Amino acid sequence: MDFTNRFGCRVFGDAVMKERLPEEIYNELKKAGEQGTRLPLEAARVVAQAMKDWAIEQGATHYSHWFQPMNSMTAGKLDSFLDITADGSAVADLSFDALVMSEPDASSFPSGGLRTTFEARGYTAWDPTSPAFVKDDTLYIPTAFCTYTGLAMDEKTPLLRSMQAVSAQALRLMKVMGYDDVTHVEPTVGAEQEYFLVSRENYESRLDLKICGRTLLGAKPSKGQELEDHYCGRIRTKVAEFMKEVDHELWELGVPSKTKHNEAAPSQHELAPIFTSVNIAADNNQLIMETLRTVAKRNGMTCLLHEKPFEGINGSGKHNNYSLSANNGINLLKPGAAPAENDLFLVTMCAFLQAVDQHADLLRMSASCPGNDYRLGGYEAPPAIISVFLGDALTGTLKGVAAGALAHAPNRSTLDTGVSVLPELVKDDSDRNRTSPVAFTGNKFEFRMLGSSQSISLCNVVLNTAVADALQSFTARLEKAADRKAEVHAIVADTMENHGRIIFNGNNYSAEWQEEAKRRGLPILENSVEAYKAMVKPENIELFQRHKVLSAEECTARYEIMVEHYAKVMAIEAKTLLEMVRRQVQPAVIAYAGKIADACNAMAKAAGVSSAAAQDHLRALMEMIDCIAAGLESLDRAVQGAEELNCETRRAEAYCYEVRAAMENLRRCCDTAETVVDCYDWPMPTYTDLLHRI
Ligand code: ADP
Ligand code: MG
Asked: I want to staple 359 with a disulfide (CB 3.0 to 4.6 A). Which of 28, 100, 263, 466 is the partner?
């Protein structure tokens, strides 16, 4: 059977709507999606009816307003379609009101003070630009989630607002460039998702994995990723079956899953979809994460989406590939054969460079979460410094245009493999740079800092808003210019002069880059707590306000949520570690030391003298027991110290510096003990078990 026939079969998408809706209503809905116009009430009524009938045919009994509160997850309560008529018979119904709006109790979601618990009203509003779908007998209706007064309490609302902002400015640019046929420009995103798989049984035996999603303890395994034998290697049968199931499920849900492969670390994998409009890409990424989790569970495994499940082993990220596309098919970031003469490309590229340079702190902030602090800068992911990779060819083109040099198309050379039977390959203009946080990859920018568990919304809110801001200033210049071509060149020259420092084509993992970045004055924000502060810097609040993406109140609320979340996550981790060490590790080491002591005594009794090696072993174990006890005490004190602080920022800082250091310290003692204690006495699966036994 042709698998493409089932693509989107559980989605109330374009084909279903075309078939089931009257033509004029279908057109209204299309217009709403493309031009951001509001759907007339009467049209929404007809859509509700058609959606319900279709969902019931798909086996749905319930519907749910599906939304994304500010915790990187999705939420929604389920209501059945059931209604009872006056004569007592059961009917299925989805009223227009129920489609368009719902009122979940908002008091249990993070709000950052946007609402108080006694005024718990929150509303979800139907987002007609992201299609509804049926999953687990439920019709899921993508929605935005706001307070009683319309303040955003979710990830989607600011994303939609930022899309409006960047679309308007990009459309303006296209008009001034003479593209009269274009009516709509939108940001497009393809988000690659990395993840780990571990066996369910091993996962269940580790409190840290269950509670925190990452290991808090664990000695280095004898084999990690040093042989470089995992990346894109043969996929193990069990994993291949899992991936197949994931693909089929996602395709049915209309998620265009495209690429799958093994990642660099053992048990690490990646899934990449085909890019789409960023709002849908964000919803799809949530579905991808959810599907990975549920299908893994069904197959006796657990999918770990944490940024750093294992110390010393590559962590997982999410690569956010971003571009702008017009409805006539033009990708604004496509250089074409002659980039130096492609004015649309040059201005869009400059807008991106200015956006990233001016708002590097915000972009860094958008990739911050407790888990990512263990990953960024670890020679597996970009460092905590934002820069842009363009490659030498494109950098040369921009410099050339800026200097007024004669534009010339780069000569594309062909690749000689030395084997005549192999096809002749045309080389790309530049090599790849896998170390850059923001890399231009031919016709899009790849933002590689994002953590694997994060929602992609915030980084795209930042990109959209910052690009909109830059486009706005450039477009204003172009609209006034007498000589458009000369103005484009002036824009390139100004951008290279003022923002050229953001371009770095070298190795971002090197120590020299740290020094160089300092010299260039680029912000270096080492951890999430420092990075979150960008959210409430006056100039950043002004940026969001200027483009009607977030109000000052919403920015402050988001900052508070992030800082509070950080402290809470760290508190949970610290407490989990304390519990594991007190109740599992320390008793195991003591019991094992007791066994060795007994053995020493027995040897002395039987042979008249004990083994010196056994006695050394015992003494070493006793030192470890003391070391663990001291580590427990300092961690306890650090946690207490942090908890006593009554300022959220200071508490987060205490967790970030003091508690984290105490956790590291305790972990070192336990990991050393793990390497000497009898494997049959060790109370939990080891790194080797987790990484190599699925
Ligand atoms: P890699 O970075 O692993 O080499 P690819 O080059 O295959 O990956 O593409 C990565 C992602 O970029 C895919 O999800 C792809 O759909 C997406 N992508 C391609 N073109 C665009 C575009 N114009 N806008 C946004 N994303 C895009
Ligand atoms: Mg990539």
From this structure: 466
Domain 162-413+426-550 grouped into CATH 3.30.590.10: yes
Closest ligand relative to 231 C-alpha: 1
- The half-sphere exposure of 600 on its side-chain side, counting CA atoms within 13 A, is 15
Regarding the beta carbon of 190 and ligand 1, being less than 6 Å apart is answered: yes
pTM of the model: 0.95
* CA distance linking residue 319 with residue 452, whole number of Å: 9
Encoded tokens for 392 = 């030498």
Residue 321 CA, ligand 2 centroid: distance in Å: 8
For ligand 1, say whether the CB of 272 is within 6 Å of any of its atoms. yes
CA distance 158 to 151: 10
Other CB atoms within a 10 A radius of the CB of residue 577 amount to 27
CATH 3.10.20.70 fits domain 3-153: yes
Distance separating alpha carbons of residues 173 and 156, to the nearest angstrom: 26
Assigned CATH class of 566-692: mainly alpha
Taking only the tens place, the pLDDT of each residue in 189-221 is: 999 999 999 999 999 999 999 999 999 999 998
Q: pLDDT for 446-455, tens place per residue?
A: 999 999 999 9
CB of 318 sitting under 6 A from ligand 1: no
Q: Where in the chain is the domain with CATH 3.10.20.70?
A: 3-153
Ligand 1 atom having least distance to the Cα of 259: 7
CATH 1.20.120.1560 boundaries in the chain: 566-692
